[in-house]
Every structure is written in structure tokens, then in C-alpha cells.
Amino acid sequence: MKRIFITGLLSLLITSVYGQNVEFKSANFKDDKDGLKKATDNIKSGDEFFELGNEAIFQVQSPGLNYELALNHYLKAQEFNPNNALLNFKIGVCYANSPYANKCIPYLYKANELDPSCDHFMNFYYGVALQLDEKFDEAVKAYEAFESEYRKADNFNKFVSKRKRECRDASGAIQDPIRAWVDNVPALNSEYNDYAPSISTDGAEIIYTSDRPNGHTPNKAGSYDKDIYSSSISERKWSAPQQLKGGVNTTSDDVSNNLSYDGTKMLLHREVDGQYDIFESSLNGYNWTSPTTMPFQISSKRANERFAAYSEDGWSIYFNRDNENRSNGFDVMYSSMQSKVQKNYMAAQMISTVNSKFNEGPIYITIDGEKMYIASQGEGSYGGYDIFVSERSQGTWGKPKNMGYPINTPYDDFFFSSTANGKYAYIASNRKGGQGGYDIYKVTFWGPPKAPVMASEDYLLASIVNPMKDNSIESTVEVKKKSFTVFKGKTIDHMTKKPVEAEIEITDNATGKTIETFTTNSATGKFIITLASGKNYGIAVKAEGYLFHSENFDIPEGSADNLVNKVIELKNIAVGSKIALRNVFFDTGKSTLRPESNTELDRLVKLLKDVPSLKIEISGHTDNTGSASLNATLSQDRAEVVVKYLVSKGIAGSRMTAKGYGSSKPVASNNTASGRQENRRTEFEIKAN
After folding, report:
1. Cβ atoms 65, 53 nearer than 8 A
2. Reduced to 3 states, what is the DSSP secondary structure of residue 179?
3. Who contacts 13 (Cβ-Cβ below 8 Å, separation ≥6)?
4. In this structure, are strands 413-418 and 396-397 parallel, antiparallel, or unpaired?
5. Nearest residue to 359 (alpha-carbon basis) of 57, 55, 132, 53
6. Is the whole-model pTM more than 0.85?
7. Which residues make Cβ contacts (< 8 Å) with residue 648, sequence separation at least 6?
8. Rounded to whole angstroms, how far apart are CA atoms 479 and 200?
9. Could you give the CA distance from residue 116 to residue 112 in angstroms, rounded to a whole number?
10. What is residue 667's DSSP assignment?
11. How do residues 254-306 score in pLDDT, each as one tens digit?
């Protein structure tokens, strides 16, 4: 009798600890048969979508809305009976394959607790929950149990083997995080999905995609279509996100892919008639134009294309394609133009060195063209999508390497967009601690380690931020500084201060070769361009009805992290208007005109030929170093040399006068080196028109 009592007590304790699986049977719900019928009907309806979602996942394809539609039914049944193992399992599977993957953990834990044999795939998805919960050793055991118990899953072996490798890699990597912080950006995120960030080269503007409520009609799953939003940063604060103006957003899913380096164009993808294609939109004033479909070499009729990116030189487009009759999902491909004028693209080529047997995702090419960042579900991932980097050597892309933790986690970590200096990047992730499904995160790279100055330095760093603990066992990916200077600003009218649409020409002063020509924004006058180090640049600004403006920048080899923010005031062609010829150079202390001055003076020749009524004075100016008489003579000689050059190019001498002012008309203080440099200049003034 005592023995029976002990056995009964143990049984009661086991039931209490592990819970009791409640089947959807009339015997369990005698008092609510109507509720039971509604619940079972919901489960039956959900099962139809659930199976479709499973089939897609098995084929390494997107499940579409199927899991979301299944959840809508399952959650209603869950309200009626929250203690059914199989229903908890199915809800967990739906969440595990959604942007809200973290929500799967309690459901799969409960399903396993109620009845670990409720489904053949229980141990596999229990392993998924443990992996997301960073219980990697336990997850491996669950995956191994699945392999031993369910021999019918032979075709599923690649998934199981991959999952076990992910756990082992992540378990080892957590001991050695890379030198980076990953911080959620609350101002950009919502309780919905916010992802696909693309940052401007100066880090001041961002565009991204969100499925937050947008005033459109929800789809059959109750969620909203995706629109593209923008935000700008000022004094370290992001502005409230706004939908892009113009025709870029529609009632379809519009997903941002990549912002061009100058911020004037954007690649995106959307679904049209059941197929995903790549589109391009341009910024015209404040508005983005209605996107146009990319040529058939990129947006084909036989496959889906998504996640496109511009190459650094503007000649190629990189993108994902899922070719027909394939079971490995999306691969990375590229297509190059034969002519930028005609914009005729060649047949797309696959990049075999960067593709895996699983889905490849968003792509980003660095502005120097040396690195490709790819999101992938393939080899080396810690789970879901991880961000990898491939380096180009002798024209060939190398095998991608995992960027490590805390950039990558067991969750989806994808999209990568960097500022020009490489210090900061923005990614999307549905990791723990976010505001919704996918959120936007900022990555701050620390750079190479430095020798500690004092022990308190480490405590100071630790007090600033508490970085998440995760990493990669791959060899550390060193993020090298890029030697670039961001030149940004706007063109405005000198008198009214209103924006002026202008053409800017960037020239290599050493060779006289034009590097880039572009037009500033018609509504704001804004522009942004990134210049490589090791060159002396001439920047000429032209607008109809205005005098041209020139700037000169010398960017030493190896310089980086520079930002030149310039407001360029353009002057009307009116009598009295003056312009400094900043790219006219002389030998030190002499009036010998250097060859690199030719490009600048030739622009003045063109102006004088275009406006034959202009009469000008060429003036030379010096700083106050040396005697006033020598400076006056030197400035006069230099002015006369310029006039002589202009005459040699066909400009009548009667239209010009030469005047040397020495140091009598400074435009800056002579007390500093930079001020004295400003004062050493050649100018022209319109005397008649």
C-alpha cells in the first residue's frame, strides 16, 4: 500500500513538473463543444498554410505569408486550449521561420515539456529554440536526437548538419568577440519590421524599409505592405522617419536595396504579378521618381531577382537571383554595362566563389571596390542570415568570411551599409532585445587594439556601453580604414541664399583629367561625393547665369575620416562680381605659371568666349610676408602672365586688364598659415558686360 502511494505521488509530481498535454477532444471540453469546434476548425485551416510553409522552407525558398496566415488561425485555437503540445509546436515553427523568431522559444519549450513525441520534427525545432536561446550544447544534443530518431529525414540532413556546425561555431566564438559595438537605433525602429538600411557616405542620411501601418489596406494576413522611409541625423539625433516623397512607394512591397554613393539614385525590389524584380529610382529635387524596371539582363522574366547593389565604379549591378529548377534558393550574380551612355548591360554572371548551397541575401560593395559584404544562410553562419565579407584580389572575389560577433548572432543578421570612412555601418537584425521583428542597428568598429595607458581605461570603455556577447570562430575580420574624404555641401545664390541647381566638375589637377561630373539637387542645391586620397583636386561649379566657382583640395596619401562641408555661393554675371581662381598655381616666389593651372584658366577662356560682352580685370594678390614693394611687383607679374595666357587662347587683350594689389586686399587673417594661403590668390572681376 505504501509502495502504491509513493508511485502515485511520483506520478503526480511528474505531471506537475512537466505539465499535462491536453488533446482537442470532446471528453476534455464537455462544457464547450462550440468552442472546441471553432478551435479545431482553426487548426485545420492553419494546417493548410503550415504545410505550404514547410514545403517552401524545405526547398530553401521563402514561405511567403503561409506561416503568418497559419499563425492567425493557430493563435485563436491557442486561446481556447494553451496546453496542447502539437499546437504549441506548430506555433513555435511558424515563429521560428518568421521575423519574430524569438517568440518561438517559449512555445517550443512548452511543446517539448508537454509531449516530446508530438511531432517527428520536435527535436529539430526544439534544437532551433535552444540555439536561439544560446544553449548551444543542448541544441546539438537535440539535433543529434532528431537524427537518430527520425531516419526518414535523410533529405533533411543538410539542415541538421548545418545547424550543428552553427552551434559549435557560435559556442566557440562567444569567447572571442570582435572589436565592435552593435547598438539598436530606437529612433528608426517600431514594433513592426524595420530593415534594409542604406546609409549615405557621410552618415547623415539613411533610407530603409518598414511594414509599419502606412494608411494602405492590410493584406489577408493583416499586415501592411512595405514602404521605404528616410531619416536624417542632426546633433546625434535621428529625425522622425518619413515615407519617401514621389512615386517610389506603392501598395506593393517596396524594399530598398542600395543607395548610390552620391545619394541621387536607389535600387529597390518589389513584387509584380507574383515575381520579384529589381527597379531603380532617382532623386529629383525633394521627390524620388517612379521606379523603372532594370534591363532584362538583371530583371528577367524567368526568375526572381532581389537585393541589388551598385558597384564602386558604376559599371555593374550585383544582385540575387533564384534560377528555375533550383533548390538552393538565391545566388549572387552581376551584370556590367558595355556603355554608360547607352546603358546596355551584358548577360548576368554568377559569382561561384561567394555562393553557397543556401540562400544568399543583401549585398554591399565598399566605395573602394575591395570588399563585398553579403548576407548568407550558408557555411559559417551562426543561424539564419549572417553577414560575411569577401575581398577582391586580382579581379576575383575570395571566399566570404563571417564578420563575427556581435555583428552576427543565431538570429537573422543581414544588410550592411557603411559610411565612407568604414568606422560605422548599419545592419538589420531580429535578435533579442529589439523593438519589433527586424530592427535597425548601428555597428561601431573600434579599430585595431591599442596598448593600455592605464587600468582605468578598460573600465571607462565598459561604462560607455555593454556590448552583446557573441562572436565568430573565424579568423578576425579586420576592418581597414578607407582613405577617402567626403566632400558635401550645397550650391546657393550669393545674394538671395536660395538653392541653385549647378553642375560640378571634379578634376585631377596633376593630369587635368575629369574624374566626375554631376548636378546638384534642383530643390536643395545639395551634393555629396567621395574623393580618394593622394590627389590634388580641382572642383569647378557652373550654373546658367552665374560665374563659375572653383575650389582646390589637396588630400595627402593615407588621409582618412575627412569631411569637407562647403556652402558654395554662386555669383550672378553682373558688373562688380569677383571670383577667385583657386586652381591657378605659380612656382614659389615667381610668376611662372604651372601646367596644372591650364584646366582652370581654360574654363575662364570658355566663359569669356560664351559671354563676348564681358570685360574683366585679372588681379594678383599676396600675403603680407616680405616687403610690400616686392609683393606688389610679384602680384602684377602674375596677373600679366595670366592675361598673356588668355590672349594666347584667343581672348582679345582689349577685354582684359592686369592689376597687382600685393597684400593690400586680404580676404583672411595673415596671422595664420591657412589665412595667408587664402590671401595668395588670383582673381578676376567683371568690369563691364
Report:
1. no
2. coil
3. none
4. unpaired
5. 57
6. no
7. none
8. 19
9. 4
10. S
11. 999 999 999 999 999 998 888 899 999 999 999 999 999 999 999 998 899 99
Contact 179, 447 (CB under 8 A): yes
Report which of 629, 641, 636 is spatially closest to residue 659, judged by C-alpha positions: 636
* Residue (of 621, 616, 688, 620) closest to 646 by Cα position: 616
CA-to-CA dists, residue 685 to 497, 538, 587, 614, 637, angstroms: 21, 21, 24, 10, 17
- Give one DSSP letter per residue of 81-144, joined into a string: -TT-HHHHHHHHHHHHTSTTGGGHHHHHHHHHHH-TTSSTTHHHHHHHHHHHTT-HHHHHHHHH
CA–CA gap between residue 263 and residue 274 (Å, rounded): 30
Q: How far is CA 19 from the centre of its chain?
A: 47
Cell matching residue 276: 520579384
Q: What is the dihedral of CA 595, 597, 601, 602, to 10 degrees?
A: 50
Tell me the domains of the chain and their CATH numbers.
Answer: 2-173 (1.25.40.10), 184-450 (2.120.10.30), 484-688 (3.30.1330.60)
Residue position matching grid coordinates 569677383: 578
- The predicted-structure confidence for 47-106, as pLDDT tens digits, reads as follows 999 999 999 888 777 898 999 999 999 999 999 999 999 999 999 999 999 999 999 999
CA distance 351 to 333: 6
Q: Residue 345 corresponds to which cell in the numbers above? A: 548591360
Other beta carbons less than 10 A from residue 15's beta carbon: 10
Classify burial at 392, counting beta carbons within 10 Å of its beta carbon; exposed 0-12, middle 13-18, buried 19 or more. middle
- Binning the chain into helix, strand and coil, the percentages to the nearest 5 are 30, 30, 40
pLDDT at 472: 38
Query: What is the rounded distance in angstroms from the CA atom of residue 196 to the CA atom of residue 229?
Result: 10
Rounded to whole angstroms, the Cα distance separating 90 from 50 reads 8
Q: Cis peptide leading into 291, omega within 30 of 0?
A: no
Other C-beta atoms closer than 10 Å to the C-beta of 181 total 18
- pLDDT mean over 469-492: 63
CA angle 550, 553, 559 (to 5 degrees): 160
518/585 Cα distance (integer angstroms): 25
Q: What is the DSSP letter of 66?
A: H
Inter-axis angle of helices 122-132 and 136-149, to 10 degrees? Answer: 170
Question: Bridge partners of 270?
Answer: 254, 277
Question: Cell 526568375 sits at which residue?
Answer: 303
Cβ atoms within 10 A of the Cβ of 451, count?
Answer: 4
- CA 234 – CA 189 distance, rounded (Å): 17
CB 88 within 8 A of CB 24: no
Contacts for 270 with CB less than 8 Å, ≥ 6 apart: 250, 252, 253, 254, 255, 276, 277, 279, 291
Using the structure block, give the residue that is written with the C-alpha cell 569567447: 175
Q: At what angle do helices 66-80 and 33-58 cross, to 10 degrees?
A: 150
In the numeric block, which cell numbers belong to residue 257? Answer: 536595396
Q: Of 353, 261, 264, 268, which Cα lies nearest the Cα of 308?
A: 268
Which one, of 258, 251, 262, 261, lies nearest residue 278 by Cα?
258
Neighbouring CB atoms inside 10 A of 649's CB total 14
Size (the chain), residues: 689
